[in-house]
Amino acid sequence: MTNPTPEDLAARIRPALTKLYVMHFRIAEQSDLTGPQLSILARLNENGPSRISHIAREEGIRMPTASNALHQLEQRELVERIRDETDRRGVRVALTQLGRNELLRVGEERNKYLSEMFSTLSDEDLTRAIELSDIINKLADSYGVEKIDTKEG
């Protein structure tokens, strides 16, 4: 195939990504946290305490959806609301130690199952997959933010 387009790549890889995603989360189902809840916990772990509006924007979800997800996490004592030091009227959401522990536990568990998937690859394919991981991580870090900025701007 010469000069593949983004559409060519999408058509070729989407079905496999969907299948792997579904299988990975079926196998690694030790946590009853949803994917979006885990994403919020990971974002709080990475960025620190954040306003709900910031979390909604970063996650690409509406404020009521973010607020509901955070309420559920707060009920489980995985996050807590704290006063915003820069604006005393504002509130930020922070990860609790229990939330950090659960995020670490679930991450380790899911890494284990994902590594089991990867262990079926040949050494050559594993090397190629590691090279592709930089591209996948680049997409994960930038794609959602760019789409949100485009919608809002």
UniProtKB/TrEMBL annotation:
Pfam family, one: MarR
Leader sequence residues: none
GO molecular function annotations of the record: DNA binding; DNA-binding transcription factor activity
InterPro entries: HTH_MarR-typ (IPR000835), Tscrpt_reg_MarR-type_CS (IPR023187), WH-like_DNA-bd_sf (IPR036388), WH_DNA-bd_sf (IPR036390)
Keywords: DNA-binding, Transcription, Transcription regulation
Gene3D superfamilies according to UniProt: Winged helix-like DNA-binding domain superfamily/Winged helix DNA-binding domain
Domain HTH marR-type stretches: 1-141
Protein name (Swiss-Prot/TrEMBL): MarR family transcriptional regulator
Organism: Corynebacterium alimapuense
Lineage, top ranks: Bacteria, Bacillati, Actinomycetota, Actinomycetes, Mycobacteriales
